[in-house]
Amino acid sequence: MVTVARKITRQKWTPRGTQPFQRVPLDGVTYDMRTENHALSMWTCDLGRDGSVNEIALVLAASRDTIDRLGVVFVEESDLQSRGIRVEPTSGNTAIDHFKARHRDAAELNLRRYCALARLLNDAILKDRCRRFSRQQIRDILAEAVGNKLLALDSLRDRVRAEIETYLASS
Length: 171
Prior knowledge:
Layout (H helix, E strand, L loop, with lengths): L2 E6 L1 H4 L12 H7 L7 E6 L6 H10 L8 E7 H6 L3 E4 L13 E5 L3 H16 L3 E4 L1 H13 L10 H13 L1
Antiparallel strand pairs: 1-2, 1-3, 2-5, 3-6, 4-5
Helix pairs in contact: 3-6, 6-7
């Protein structure tokens, strides 16, 4: 079974001081489900393999402007497909070449499919099929990838690169 992961901001799906919504919260949808060319970007993940979830965090964090906490939600690719959502392998936008093939697009989204996908993400959040990484964990994941030569320091954006350089120099 193939699992796909999507970056989320959990507090947009569960407002402070409340229980998770049984209905899909609009703030989560509008904040975390921006599409491009009628598609939503996702990454494949093997939840049964050690390190696979951290690899997703690495891919997502390596393309950001700053080091910050990160939330990820997991859904089964077959659940998308059973709702008529086409999942296409596409080359991912990442500085780590061998992860590019793990990218998927939920493609040809229309309003019906988009709403079905929003329900799937919300259901996964309600079932706690997500993972949150602290800022420190993200920094450590990036630094380890640079140290292991999995990620080139110069491929990172300026602020991230500067912070990782400082962190590695102090270690």
